[in-house]
Amino acid sequence: MKILVLNAGSSSLKYRLFENEKKVAGGIVERIGEKGGVKDHTEALAMAEKRLKESGAVLSFASLDAVGHRVVHGGEKFTGPAVVDEALIETLKGLIPLAPLHNPANIEGIVTMRKIAPHVPQVAVFDTAFHQSMPKEAFLYAIPLEMYRRYRIRRYGFHGTSHCYVAKEAAKLLQRPLGELNIITLHIGNGASACAIEGGRSIDTSMGFTPLEGLVMGTRCGDLDPEIPIFLQERGVDAAELLNKESGLKGLCGRSDMREVERLAAEGDKDAVTALELFARRIRKYIGAYAALLGRVDAVVFTAGIGENSSKVRESACRGLERFGIELDSDKNLEHRTVISTERSAVKLLVIPTDEELEIARQTGALLSDDRL
Question: What's this model's pTM, rounded to 2 decimal places?
């Protein structure tokens, strides 16, 4: 089964082609809608099709078995992948206020692809869907219920496709059914989130109504007193711009790339040292909180750019957690092994590269196979 996975952004189009879950080809078209770049998503998809045809990967998009689309926000409507039709597109348009920077581009990619290959089945896979299993006490905020009922203000969570993928991979590594495991997954990149997974179901996650809440990130602040944005706005500061684009690691030490932060910290830059400690401390705090919620933790999984590559962050995040049965093996960690816990550690510490595109392809194939039975 040949499945093309598309991630349509406002100015870029990422694509990967899978055949029977094996990556065949992939690439990215950038500068969509920019001067000197490609005109729109129609032109971007035509460029992607041309590249794939020239490589011999496909005859045309019309020859595909399916297309899987990454969609950032599915609201409360979608608890899993869904086959694309006109009703789904209209529902996604209604969700644009919840993800104004992402959903419009996701929709444009879907609509354009349907025009190019109208007979190819297409599936939307949502970043938020995995977290729809959270109980009310996890997703509600302690504000008047009318705000939830009227505006759907609640915790949605993001990175769900990644959390879902690495949890499944962890179960394979542990050679145990996912339904028997309690896992804390840590997707730590420029954007970062933690997730408590009980028996394969998300019961809590650090990102909230938007991707701003939770862990410290490259340019996002994560958790903070909700009075702060009001305080800033009253003094003429654009709080949305500041907290989303000028905060996090960048706000603390002037660098948003963890590699640069670690380099500066090693050179003795005090702000970078503080940024690194604050970053890891927040992760450690969430590990402890989710251990309390889960009661028993079988594994903690590090994934995404920083989680997969920074032994320093992993070491700092696990420091002092021995009382929770978490013991890091320093040598294994420095060697970037898959299992970085000691032999006696009650909790397995795992480093698992995420593959959101593969998870989208798997969910797309599974849904269409079920639909055709």
Answer: 0.94
299-303 sheet: strands from edge to edge: 201-205, 192-198, 182-188, 299-303, 348-351
Q: Which of 65, 127, 225, 238 is catalytic?
A: 127
Q: Where in the chain is the domain with CATH 3.30.420.40?
A: 2-126, 176-356
Q: Residue 147 is which amino acid? A: M
Residues 6+ apart with CB under 8 A from 258: 218, 249, 279, 305, 306, 310, 313
- pLDDT tens-place string over residues 260-304: 999 999 999 999 999 999 999 999 999 999 999 999 999 999 999
Quick: pLDDT tens for 221-262. Answer: 999 999 999 999 999 999 999 999 999 999 999 999 999 999
| 225 catalytically annotated | no
Looking at the domain that runs over 176-356, which CATH code has it been given?
A: 3.30.420.40
Beta pairing class for 22-30 and 12-19 = antiparallel
- 2-126: what CATH class? alpha beta
